[in-house]
């Protein structure tokens, strides 16, 4: 066995020893933390269910393919393959959905292709914006996102365009 299999048990033992040293009821603190975690989970589940349902409906309706074909000429001006558009649409909403789209792109075009590299860099340089906002703002009870959504979308767009630019710069088109 290697050292990595001992890290979690070692960390738990260290926390328990420190807690006992400070005369903290470690078991009570653990159960209280788990109770708070479940409370947060119950508050954010409606947002997550709505978000995942909307993503599934968007993909199943064919709207993603229609929007991809509509944006293809604009994307080509920036060197972004039109096939990457579904990834750009789904990434801000669903990490799992984006990973599935990227896996399909890599399987059909190859990981060393221009599209494969762009898709991989897009996954690494962007965030699941709406999922993150739903989880964090939902758990904190914040209902008005103000400038968060526009700023996060601008960051995602920057990541998408930068991914294409740097893949072209470093690997060629």
Largest sheet: none
Number of strands: 0
Low-confidence runs: none
Query: Mean pLDDT, rounded to whole units?
Result: 87
Number of domains: 1
Count helical runs. Answer: 8
Helix content class: over 70%
| Share of β-strand residues | under 5%
Describe the structure in brief.
By secondary structure, the chain is mainly α.
Walkthrough of the structure:
The model has no long low-confidence stretch (mean pLDDT 87). By secondary structure, this protein is mainly alpha-helical. Helix 2 packs across helix 7, helix 5 (95-109) packs antiparallel against helix 6 (114-125) and helix 6 packs antiparallel against helix 8. The protein is built from eight helices and no strands. The chain has one domain. The protein is extended and about 65 Å long.
Q: Main attributes?
A:
single chain, 173 residues, 8 helices, 78% helix, mainly alpha
List the helices and strands and how they pair.
Layout: H1 7-21, H2 26-61, H3 63-77, H4 85-90, H5 95-109, H6 114-125, H7 129-140, H8 148-171
